[in-house]
Amino acid sequence: MSKLPKEHQFLDLSDYGRPFAVFIANRLKTTIFTPIHVTLAFTVCGLLAIAFILNGFYWSALFFLILKSVLDAADGELARIKNTPSHTGRYFDSISDFMLNLLFIISIWYITNSDIFLALIAFVGLELQGTLYNYYYVILRNRHNGDTTSRVFENKTPTALRDENQQTVNILYRIYSFCYGPYDRIIYGLDKNAIKGKYQPNWLMTAVSTFGLGFQLLIIGLFLVFNLKAYIIPFFIGYSLLIFVFILIRQVLNK
């Protein structure tokens, strides 16, 4: 099930694993497995990818990075198929992604003996890229009656949905805000009028989708298997400059 109505869908380059995610979700829809179980599975895949990176098994790392991306899409698919949206699952998914992303960058820093300061800049760039992509995508989904589990502005604790515990939602929201709050504020500050914009063309969303986590992990995996690991950290630092380019394009289109 797409997060957007068909007439507003775009080519999402970070979402290459969606067909496999749909297949997995359909196989799990009548089982006891929940979206949280799938999130736990993609977390394990991410940790396995990190172990393979640290030990030099880069093709195996690429496999688990891609599988992680597939399962990352499958948990949301399963929630939509079972009609069990939850803030718990949404925040747990995002927190898991944040921690894994940090560990991915640390593992790259370790095997390349890079400057730790540059590695941290690359991590910040990675998160800002993903935040811009999610910001534009959530605005698009809310504008066109798509999936609304994610909110444009995560500035207050949401009310627990059916079968959720409010205290659990409160705790996860606080952790989520600690992890993502600074990046959200930076992106909102750079393009605070994005929610008012009426024109968000598909080609721009496709370009911004290269900031999506699935595409980022694919890039990391490909750089590893092609023996370009030393360029991963510089790439994500340099690629972050496109944040300003995409924001400028969106603003010009909506003048």
Describe the structure.
The protein has 255 residues and is an all-alpha fold. It has one domain (6-253): Up-down Bundle (Four Helix Bundle (Hemerythrin (Met), subunit A)). The chain has ten helices and no strands. It has helices at 18-28, 35-54, 58-81, 87-112, 116-143, 166-190, 202-208, 213-225, 232-239, 242-253. α4 packs antiparallel against α5 (116-143). The longest helix is centred in the middle third of the chain and has 28 residues, at 116-143. The chain is globular and about 45 Å long. The two termini are 34 Å apart. The mean pLDDT is 93. The chain crosses the membrane at residues 38-71, 91-110, 116-136, 203-225, 231-249. This is CDP-alcohol phosphatidyltransferase. InterPro entries: CDP-OH_P_trans, CDP-OH_PTrfase_TM_dom, CDP_ALCOHOL_P_TRANSF_CS. It comes from Maribacter orientalis. One of its GO terms (molecular function) is phosphotransferase activity, for other substituted phosphate groups.
